[in-house]
Predict the structure.
Amino acid sequence: MIKDSDNVKLLEPGKTPAKRKILVVEDNELNREIAEELLSMKGVLVESAANGEEALKMYNTSPEYYYTAILMDIQMPVMNGYEATKHIRQLKREDVKSIPIIALTANVFFDDIIQAQRAGMNDHIAKPIDIDNLTSILEKYI
């Protein structure tokens, strides 16, 4: 796992280590593609899931510390972002304690932010995604 002491900014183009891999969980294909493109432009490797259940399976079957962060939509079919986050945080893996899980949602009221925190999310990003805000939040946690 890359540590802060490596002195590499997460989203600095051309300087992002290949180990930086973010899981984008978003049921809307266009929103998922936009998030993937924004992150890819910053040199981050991206994998994606279309719902919380798929994300949970991907995370659970990956090696520990495989993902650097998770961007989690809230309202999705099959399993929503709150449920997926709760399940991820309960897995018997060392990395569940440290993986930043950031909510992606159009719901930006105070109660929505509190609910995301209660589910185990670290932060909250409003849609549509502002790349500067996304970059700032990711660099805060990674």
Q: What stands out?
A: The first helix runs from residue 29 to 41.
